[in-house]
Amino acid sequence: MVSSTAHRHHLVRSHVLFATDEWFATADNLLLDSPPTFVPDLYCPQGKVMDGWETRRKRIAGHDWAIIQLCPSARGLKDVAALELDTAHFTGNHAPRVSIEVAKLSSDDDSSLQDDGWMPGAASRKMRGGGVQGTGRTPEEIDEAEQAVRSAAGGRGWVTILPQTALRPGYEESSIHRFVLDDVTRSRAQAATHVRINYYPDGGVARLRVWGKPRYDIGTTISSASNGSSNSNAIAMPRNVSATSVMNDAVYSSASAVSKEVDAATAPPAPLEIKSNWVAFSAEPYPNPELSSSDLGGAGLACSNKHYGVPSNLIQPSYGKDMGDGWETARHPDRPAIWAKDTKTGLMDTDLMDWAVLKLGKQANLGVSRIILDTKHFRGNFPESVQVEGCCASSNTEEEDAAVCEATPDKKDDNGAIQWFPLLPRTRMGPDAEHVFDRTSGSIINGDKPVTHVRVTIYPDGGLSRVRIYGDASEPDHLQSHL
Predict the structure, then answer these.
(1) How far, in Å, CA of 109 to CA of 347, rounded?
(2) Distance CA 362, CA 152 (A)
(3) Quick one: CA dihedral 66, 72, 78, 81, positive or negative?
(4) Quick one: pLDDT at residue 395?
(5) CB neighbour class for 326 (10 Å; exposed up to 12, middle 13-18, buried from 19)
(6) Which residue ranges in the chain fall short of pLDDT 50?
């Protein structure tokens, strides 16, 4: 038998009105009753399938946020007592910091804000059953929604019930975060009808629970509904999306008994179908060999982070089969709360980066003539920009390889023997594409210098499917004359 508390958890039916980005997973998942799940090898057109609200790696200014309407059947919460945030399974991609605000956007004698019309796009979202995975709002749409949020609050304003707070990654021992509100905050948050959750700046959270008491007791209508009554005032069971607010934690022991059947008419929308425009420029004939290829002996030697993939994937001759078949780093833990752009370069205003060192299978004696950076499958987590450097080691030994790897961007080689020089300056990337740079077009600098190793630096983090370095391994003319 399902307890009335579990029924109450479903019937109050909080729902998401707006989210800035729902590329990897929709904000509706925050409100699910079920424990977060994880399937290691499950991918979709957007990338890795995650059970929570996960936004893209932000490549524009700002931060992500969402608005949730609380318990519309009960006119919001009489009292907000505590919060719970679960980052389960978000280990390298959790939101590093969040804040939570609440507001009373309507009164008993003013129901103008009880519906969703005040928030742009909320009504159509509700009609289709939730957000659409693989979508994100434009800067203009976000600005319009921000203005609507401010206007709706009017003079009442929003009350911060959780200031900007660091979250731990979603390992089993660290994923649950609980916060009990003090009396002053609880007093200021009374009669809350809406919640705003802010990610700083992006990432994922599996579940959000706002613990409190509904403003109006809906027990009578719950009882009628659970007893099968045809009372017209009974609240219909919604699709399997829970409220964030419940009376107590009994839902955890009883949720398994709640029916998980979802009517087809109210099922969540399917993820957005993505048509790839990826073009294999690397398949076209080219006079010089791909010296970085593993077929010629190329190797991925080292990297700063390999949370989702290793650098040896970058030099495979094949094309990447999915995001797991590339080099992808965790979201940078030191990324700022709100991203900003450099007004001079147009790139993100940050020096945060990750790097990987690749050894060419054959030395580019006559320099590097072409570089291809492939972001195939990386649609919501490609690097904002990439820089490529080269060096020429004095010998082909493991000791020399180690010295090359030790000369990281933040540390110079003690002996000065390893001198990195730029091949491709920091350059903007795009999703799911081969980015081609040729010496003949002037894209590559120092293209006449011999190269044995390359260092690929991504800003601020992200993933690449392949890195292809082309060049001429022939001996220079002055050496050939002595052969």
Answers:
(1) 49
(2) 64
(3) negative
(4) 85
(5) buried
(6) 1-11, 109-110, 218-266, 478-483
In this prediction, residue 227 carries a pLDDT of: 37
The predicted structure's pLDDT at residue 233? 31
Closest CA to 452 of 334, 313, 297: 297
133-186 pLDDT, tens digit per residue, is 999 999 999 999 999 999 998 877 899 999 999 999 999 999 999 999 999 999
The tokens for 180 are 């009990």
Token pair recorded at residue 445: 């600098």
pTM here is 0.79
- The phi, psi pair for 67, rounded to 5°, reads -115, 130
Displacement of CA 126 from its chain's centroid (Å): 24
The pair phi, psi for residue 419, each rounded to 5°, is -115, 105
**Cα 255 from Cα 77, distance rounded (Å):** 21
Specify whether the CB–CB gap between 180 and 208 falls below 8 A.
no
Secondary structure class of 372 (helix, strand, coil): strand
List residues bridging with 434 in a β-sheet: 374
Q: Which amino acid is at 392?
A: C
- Backbone phi, then psi, for 385, in 5-degree steps? -155, 165
Reduce the DSSP state of residue 201 to 3 states and report it: coil
Q: What is the pLDDT of residues 312-364, one digit of tens each?
A: 999 999 999 999 999 999 999 999 999 999 999 999 999 999 999 999 999 99
DSSP element (H, E) containing 291: none
The region, left, alpha or beta by phi > 0 then psi within -120 to 50, assigned to residue 141 is: alpha
Gyration radius of the chain's alpha carbons: 27
Is the CB of residue 27 less than 8 Å from the CB of residue 55? Answer: no
CB of 299 within 8 A of CB of 359? Answer: yes
The residue behind tokens 């802010």 is: 198
Classify residue 261 as exposed, middle or buried by CB count within 10 Å of its CB (0-12, 13-18, 19+).
exposed
Q: How many CA atoms lie within 13 A of 255 on its CB side?
A: 16
Backbone angles phi, psi at 234, to 5 degrees: -65, 150
- What are the residues facing 422 on neighbouring strands? 389
Beta carbons within 8 Å of 270's beta carbon, 6+ residues apart: 132
Q: Which long-range contacts (CB under 8 A, 24 or more apart) does 220-226 make?
A: 221/11, 221/73, 222/4, 222/7, 222/8, 222/11, 223/4, 225/7, 225/11, 226/2, 226/4, 226/7
